[in-house]
Design brief:
Layout: H1 21-27, H2 30-37, E1 41-44, E2 47-51, H3 56-66, H4 73-88, H5 90-109, H6 123-151, H7 158-170, H8 173-185, H9 187-190, H10 197-200, E3 202-215, E4 219-234, H11 241-251, H12 263-282, H13 285-290, H14 294-317, E5 326-327, E6 333-338, H15 341-347, E7 354-358, E8 363-368, H16 374-388, E9 398-401, E10 406-411, H17 423-437, E11 442-447, H18 455-471, E12 475-479, H19 483-495, E13 501-508, E14 514-520, H20 529-540
Amino acid sequence: MKVCLLYEDRERSNEISYYDTASIIKDLGLKSLFLAAAKRLVYENGEVKRSEKEDAYLIDTLRSVMMTPLESAEEIQFRQEIVRDCIGHEELIRSLYDISSEVIFRWNELGRGPREKMQNSNPVTRLLTDIKVIRLLCGALSKIRGIFISQEPKLSSKGLTAFADEFTAAFSAEREAYIKRVLDDISFYTGGIDLEDEARSREISPRIVFECGLEDGLKFSSLKLEEVSSGSRKFYRPGSTMYKLRELLESGTPDSFAVTKDIHIKEQTQLLEYGIVSYIIEGLRSFTEEFRTFFDRLRFQAAFYLAAVQLKAQMERIGAQWCFPEVCDRRDLEFTDLREFVMGLERRMTVIGNTCSLKGKDLLIVTGANQGGKSTFLRSIGIAQLMMQCGLMVTAQSYRSGIFPRIFVHFTRREDSEMNSGRLDEELGRMDKIVSHIGEGSLLLLNESFATTTEKEGSVIAYDIIKALKEAGVRILTVTHLLSFARRVHEEAADAPSAGVAFLSAERKADGTRTFRMIPHEPELTSFGLDLYEEIVEKKTPH
C-alpha cells in the first residue's frame, strides 16, 4: 500500500540533499524554524495560551525534507496543494500522524521486526503476537478509513484525494468486515484479551466443525474444516461450585465431554486449536505484509505536512503574512514584503520586510551601512528559497523565483572573530570545497566573504572567484563590505548593461537612521561605520 504524499509518482526522493546541509542550517538559523514547526500552539478564546513540548520526530522529518529539494514546478505545486488541504483540514493530518505513531509504538512493544528474528520464539507466543498485530493494524486502518469517508468530499488536492481513493479501495468495507469476522471467530484462542471490557467478563469458547468420512477401523478420511467460530458464556472461576456443576452437566450429555479432565485429551485439543488458528492466520499473512511498512511511510509523510500546518500557525502568531511561492525563470527573482522568518520566530515579533524585482540577473551585490539589515535580507532569501523548494509557504506577500537544486552558503562565522590567525585560510578552504561541488544552475549566498584580510586583497579574491562562478552559470547573491570589489563590478556593468548584475544598498537616512530596507543604489564608498562609533560614544558620555 503506497502513500505518495510527498511525490506524486513515488514514495521517496530520487535526488540527493543539498551539499553541506550543516552549514546551510547553521548560517540560516534553521534550527529555530525546525523547533517552531515541532510545537503545537494551544489556543484559548482565540489567543495563544501556550505551546506544547516539541516533537523530536517532526524536527527530524522537516530537516530531512527541507534539505532534499524538489526539482520541478509540478512537484512543488503538488505539495503546495496538499499543504493547503492540510491547513483547511488540520485534524485530518494530525489524526493520520497520531494514528500511525501509535501503531508503530504499540507494534514495537509487541516485538516488531523481521519475521526471521521471531522464528526461535515460542510458537504459541508467536501466534498470539501475530493475532495482536493483525487486530492492531485492522483497528488503525478502520480509523483511517472512517476519517477519509468523512473528509473525502471536502478534499481538493490531487495527492490527498488519490491517497484516500487508493486507501479505501485497498482496505474496503468488505475487507475490513472479513478480517474482523476472522478475528472474532478465533478470539477463543486469545482468551478474549483484545476484546472490549464487557466481553472479557464472559468466557470465550470455540466451535470447530469438521467434515470427514470414516474408513475401516473407524479412521477419519477426507478431513475438511467446515467452521471455526467463538461463542461466549458467563464466566465462572475455575474450581468454583458453578464451574464444577457446569462441567458435570456437560460431561453427562452423550455428545460432549470436559476436555480438562483428561490431560492427554487437553493437550491434543490445544494442538488442534493451535494448528487450526495457525492455518487461518497464515491466510492473513498477505494483509500483514501489505501494511508492514505502510505506517512508517504514512507517519513520515504526515509529519511533514503537520509541521507545515504548525509553521503556518507560528507565522500568524508573529503577525507575518505568508503566501505560496511561484516558480519562474532561474534568472528572475521577485518578491513583495519578504520577511526574515527565523528572526521573527526568535524575537516573537514581525520584522521589516523588503521588496525586490530582479529580472535577467545572475549576480546581486548588496552594500551599504553597517547594521543596516543586509545579512538579514540575504538570509530571508535563503530561507524562502529553501521553503519554496520543499513545497512550503514563505513569509511574504508574494515570492517568485527559479529552482536551484544545489544551494551553497558561505557566511563569515562569528566564532572566526576569536581566531588570531588562519581566518582567511579557513574561508578559502570552505570556498574550495564549494567550488568542487558547484556548477551551472546553482545558487550561492555569500555573506561578507573574504573580509578577514585587507580590503585590497579581499576585493581581488572576491572579484576573481565571483567572476569565474558567474561565467560558469552560477547565480550569486552577495553581501559585502569590499567596496573596491563592488565598485569595480559596477563600473564594468555600466559599460555592459546586459551583464546581468544588480546592485542594492541598505537604506540610510540623512541623520544616520537605518530603515533596514534594501534599495537600488550603486555601491557607496563607505559603510558608515562612524555612525556606530558616534552612537557608542554618545551612550558612554554622561549627560
